[in-house]
Automatic annotation (TrEMBL):
SUPFAM superfamilies: Trypsin-like serine proteases (SSF50494). Residues 1-17 form the signal peptide. Residues 21-237 form the Peptidase S1 domain. It holds the Pfam family Trypsin. This is Serine protease. Belongs to the peptidase S1 family. It comes from Lentzea indica. It comes from the Bacteria. CDD domains: Tryp_SPc. PROSITE patterns: TRYPSIN_DOM.
Length: 237
């Protein structure tokens, strides 16, 4: 079972955070990502993604839930098309974020949600070796977010995109606040493929394991401006 290190429950109001799939394809096989979940409000509005790491545990970005009452968040699993009513839904019973989290650009952007009801889907194993973060390794990011930086509408269909991990030195050159212990970057020099708004909290999967969580960046799919992901192995075992 997954466990998050150095946790406290957060109940304060969140600071504004602009999360950041562009250049991807629709996921049409429900067996490809059974662990993928959507975070929604009671109205059904999807605002973030997440991944089951246990039958009642969801890993997502801290900025997705920071300051929200647990009971105001619902988790939807087993539903590739959010316009349908298939799958399973559970309210969040409680959640934890890493102690010291403040904003995505300062790192520690990860939360572990505990569901009131278990989900009947296979969980996503957590990455177990630091080698998954080597520059050039290709991961797959999943989400229901916008498909272009200036889109006003997001997709109700789950999308995915394959993106190479960038060497830490390159990421540090792009972002002055880059912290190699807390984060990693993924992107193409020419841009064009990236996570985007409302993909936040979604999983970045390398070799069938959870390596990252969509966290932050500048715009979506811009050249020389990679997406920044939470380095899950630092916080989740």
């Amino acid at each position: 079972m997954a466990a998050l290190l150095a946790l406290i429950v957060i109940t304060v109001t969140p600071a504004h955070a602009e999360p950041r799939i562009v250049g991807g394809v629709v996921v049409d096989n429900p067996d490809e990502a059974p662990w993928m979940v959507a975070l929604t409000l009671s109205s059904g509005y999807q605002f973030c993604g997440g991944a089951l790491v246990g039958s009642k545990l969801v890993a997502t970005a801290a900025h997705c839930v920071y300051g929200r009452a647990p009971g105001s968040i619902s988790v939807v699993g087993g539903r590739l098309d959010l316009r349908t009513d298939g799958g399973s839904t559970s309210v969040v019973a409680k959640y934890q974020v890493v102690e010291g989290y403040s904003t995505p650009s300062r790192g520690k952007d990860i939360a572990l949600l505990t569901l009131a009801e278990p989900m009947p889907y296979a969980p996503l194993p957590v990455a177990a070796t630091a080698g998954v973060y080597a520059g050039g390794n290709v991961g797959v990011v999943y989400g229901w977010g916008r498909q272009a930086e200036n889109d006003t509408n997001k997709s109700p269909l789950l999308h995915k995109a394959s993106i190479p991990i960038m060497a830490d030195e390159q990421c540090a050159a792009a972002y002055a606040r880059f912290d190699a212990q807390a984060m990693f970057c993924a992107g193409y020099p020419e841009g064009g493929v990236d996570s985007c708004v409302d993909d936040s909290g979604g999983p970045f999967v390398v070799d069938g394991r959870l390596a990252g969580i969509v966290s932050w960046g500048i715009g979506c799919a811009r050249p020389n401006t990679p997406g920044v992901y939470t380095r899950v192995m630092t916080y989740l075992t």
